[in-house]
Amino acid sequence: MNKPRAANPPYKLPPPLFDARCKACWFVAGLIALVVASFWSLDLQWAQFFSADAAASMGRFVGEFFPPDTSPAFLAKVAAAAWETLAMSALGTLLAAIAALALALPASRLHVHDAAWGRAPTRLLLNALRSIPELVWAALLLISAGLGPFAGTLALALHTAGVLGRLFAEAIENAPSGPGDALRAQGVGSGRVFLYATLPQVLPQLLSYALYRWENNIRAAAVLGVVGAGGLGQLLAFHMGLFHMPKTATVLGAMLLLVAFVDAASLGARRWMTR
Question: In whole angstroms, how far apart are CA 15 and each of 12, 24, 31, 71, 254?
Answer without folding.
Answer: 9, 14, 21, 66, 53
